[in-house]
Amino acid sequence: MSGKKQNILIGITGSIAAYKICELIRALKKKDVSVKVILTKAGEQFVTPLTISTLTENRVYKDLFVDDAGAHRDMPLLEHINLSDWADVCVIAPASANTIAKIAHGIADNLLTSTVLALPKEVPLIICPAMNVNMWENKMVRKNMSVVQEIADIVGPKKGRLACGVEGMGAMADVEDIFEVIVKKLRSFNGK
Ligand SMILES: Cc1cc2nc3c(=O)[nH]c(=O)nc-3n(C[C@H](O)[C@H](O)[C@H](O)COP(=O)(O)O)c2cc1C
User: What kind of architecture, by CATH, is found in domain 7-66+74-188?
Assistant: First the structure.
């Protein structure tokens, strides 16, 4: 990677695997890329904005509607458009069943899903599901996965001991594997 810093946008959703993304951010920062994170409301239950903003050296993006009172802007603050234009690669890790369902149906009811819907078509989207084995095997989730795999690279999940205590499919892919896919995508990305 050379020249202009490349921009990686990470969406963190409401899964216990969210804490692992701190390591992913650290590994990416060593590559001298820029990282910004969108945290869903549920994601915020699992990692704090302070941790994420410290690791990314950027503020954390959470709200679709930003309280801009007093800023005296001529233009509304279109956070989802700015972020989708900024990203060279967009990664959702961990990706909850809920967010996957929204993406599969083109729903854009929060900052993350609105940004994903506004991503230019050239920008690679990587989705790293993480969920309970019954959720993963649920017919609706299976349907939604078949839709999202048409528009995104899917990394994981893998078999493992899940947070609910059972052994099965649904654990988020290893951070090292997600990192490798991101780096590969950055190398092959020719710009927008
Ligand atoms: C302790 C706990 C762990 C959870 N882990 C997961 C998970 O790994 N995967 C998942 O799809 N949902 C998980 N959920 C449920 C999601 O947080 C919930 O569906 C939420 O609405 C997701 O919102 P989001 O997609 O906007 O982040 C968990 C909930 C709790 C309370």
Answer: 3-Layer(aba) Sandwich (3.40)
Cα(187) to centroid(ligand 1), Å: 32
Nearest CA to ligand 1 atom 13: 15
Q: Which two tokens stand for residue 72?
A: 């005296």
Determine how many CB atoms are found less than 10 A away from the CB of residue 172: 25
Locus of tokens 């990305």: 189
Instruction: Give me the pLDDT at residue 75, please.
Output: 60
| Residue of higher predicted confidence among 4 and 24 | 24
Collapsed DSSP state (helix, strand, coil) of residue 90 = strand
Asked if 11 and 89 touch (Cβ cutoff 8 Å), the reply is no
Classify strands 158-161 and 167-171 as parallel, antiparallel or unpaired: antiparallel
Global pTM value: 0.94
The angle subtended at Cα 180 by Cα 176 and Cα 181, nearest 5°, is: 120
**11 CB less than 6 Å from ligand 1?**
no
